[in-house]
Specification:
alpha/beta; 2,3-Dihydroxybiphenyl 1,2-Dioxygenase, domain 1; 2 domains; four-stranded mixed β-sheet; 8 strands; 16% helix
């Protein structure tokens, strides 16, 4: 038995300020809010994956490392909307790979605690 048939159900995003973290993911990014268990945990629905935005317990240091990529249809529109909402992007949307069928576009940013996030969009080439 192994994880071959497993799917990711939940990801933890460590934050330092509960209210600011909830506001960023709910209000700024617009991710559907599910419920909160203050003062440490808030849960959001992101497709088939639940995001747990949580304050670490006293004495436990936040482990940051894995970037979270949000797959979207129109990277340019979402980028513009989030930039107007105050999200600080590292760069404009840019193509990182092209195949005969599609282009892969990214736009990287961080949350207020420095967690690595990105918009990702696969654009199918016309005629493909």
């Amino acid at each position: 038995m192994n994880l071959a048939d497993a799917k990711i159900a939940q990801l933890l995003i460590p934050i330092s300020d509960f209210d600011a973290g909830v506001a960023f993911y709910r209000d700024t990014l617009g991710i559907p809010f599910l419920f909160a268990a203050p003062p440490q945990m808030a849960f959001f629905n992101c497709g088939e994956v639940r995001l747990l935005v949580g304050v670490m317990p006293p004495g436990q240091e936040a482990q940051r490392g894995s970037a979270i990529y949000f797959q979207i249809q129109d990277i340019h529109s979402v980028f513009s909307s989030l930039k107007q909402a105050g999200v600080s992007f590292k760069s404009e949307p840019h193509m990182v790979n092209r195949t005969p069928r599609s282009e892969l576009w990214l736009a990287e940013f961080t949350d207020p605690d420095g967690n690595q996030l990105a918009l990702m969009s696969e654009v199918v080439q016309s005629g493909a």
